[in-house]
Design a protein that fits this description.
- With 166 residues, the protein is of the alpha+beta class.
- It has one domain: Roll (2,3-Dihydroxybiphenyl 1,2-Dioxygenase, domain 1).
- 21% of the residues lie in helices and 43% in strands.
- It has 4 helices and 11 strands, in the order βαβββββαβαββαββ.
- An 11-stranded mixed beta sheet has the order 4-3-8-9-10-7-1-6-5-2-11.
- The chain is globular, with a radius of gyration of 16 Å.
- The chain starts with 8 loop residues before the first strand and ends with a strand.
- GO terms for molecular function: lyase activity; metal ion binding; methylmalonyl-CoA epimerase activity.
- This is Lactoylglutathione lyase.
- It holds the Pfam family Glyoxalase_4.
- InterPro entries: Glyas_Bleomycin-R_OHBP_Dase, MMCE/EMCE_epimerase, VOC_core.
- Keywords: Lyase, Metal-binding.
Length: 166
């Protein structure tokens, strides 16, 4: 396989923080820093297909909230079970920066490139025609890298709720 055109990552799309209490975190970010409004979604086997953890099919669940700060999306994630890499992170480190999502030129080429380098997939799934994949880059980047494959018919679903309510 050819090496992808460098740089591998072409843009920063998202910064994500794992938290133990999503609503407390949204309130804090909004009231202290003015960051928001937050769109809230639940990811589980009812809303996400093809869920994997370390390349094996495995259902997990989390509640997350999203907002934009300039051109970068900020994400807060609260694990709802003990199966995900978010739960592992929270148990080992407490709340904190979990991953950074990057744009890539070619999703499949990028996944294959990382596999050739011995860097595997930690977790992933398909949500509303958006395939998300977390790469095992902690030892080489000091954080987890996430990449997306977004279909042409992807559309943001309506959030379950928005915080704060307007």
């Amino acid at each position: 396989m050819d090496t992808p055109k460098l740089p591998i990552f072409t843009n920063v799309l998202q910064v994500a923080v794992v938290v133990d209490d999503l609503y407390k975190a949204m309130k804090h970010y909004y009231e202290i820093y003015g960051i928001g409004p937050w769109k809230v979604y639940t990811f589980n086997s009812s809303t996400v297909s093809d869920m994997i953890i370390r390349n094996k099919l495995s259902n997990y669940s989390m509640k997350l909230s999203l907002c934009d700060i300039g051109n970068v999306q900020w994400e807060l994630i609260q694990p709802l079970d003990d199966k995900s890499i978010y739960y592992e992170f929270l148990k080992e480190h407490g709340s904190g920066l979990h991953h950074v999502a990057f744009a890539v030129n070619d999703y499949d080429e990028t996944v294959n490139y990382f596999r050739q380098k011995g860097i595997g997939v930690l977790q992933g799934g398909l949500w509303n025609n958006l395939k998300y994949t977390y790469l095992d880059t902690q030892s080489t980047m000091s954080t987890i890298a996430e990449i997306y494959q977004i279909s042409k018919d992807f559309a943001w679903p309506e959030p379950e709720e928005v915080y704060p309510l307007k």
